[in-house]
Amino acid sequence: MIYKISYVIIGGRHPGAIVNQDHMPYIGEKVQIGELWYAVQEIKDLLPPQRNFAYLHVTCQPTKPPAKQN
């Protein structure tokens, strides 16, 4: 499945992004858009899945980068 995701940023000056990815986002996931990091707050279907595509609206807010693992 290919997820076509519209990322919308809450309270930020970032315009958001439209991204294709191979996994479904989840609440609390940290995503990098450009050089900045955001935490997923809400996920909504824009349309029912069609063939091999799902269309999602994901609301995020600015967050710190994830901790580096050794």
Explain what the structure shows.
A five-stranded mixed β-sheet has the order 2-1-5-4-3, with no helix packed on it. It starts with a strand and ends in a 7-residue tail after the last strand. A hairpin with a 7-residue loop joins β1 (2-9) and β2 (17-21). The chain is built from no helices and five strands. The chain is mainly β and 70 residues long.
Shape: globular
The helix-strand sequence is EEEEE
Q: Which percent range fits the helix content?
A: under 10%
Number of helices: 0
Round the mean pLDDT to the nearest integer and report it.
93
Low-confidence stretches: none
Kindly estimate the percentage of residues that lie in beta strands according to DSSP. over 45%
Largest sheet, strands/sense/barrel: 5 strands, mixed
The largest sheet has its strands arranged as 2-1-5-4-3
**Strand elements, count:** 5
What is Rg? 12 Å
Task: Kindly report how far apart the N and C termini lie.
Answer: 31 Å
Instruction: Specify the structural class.
Output: mainly beta
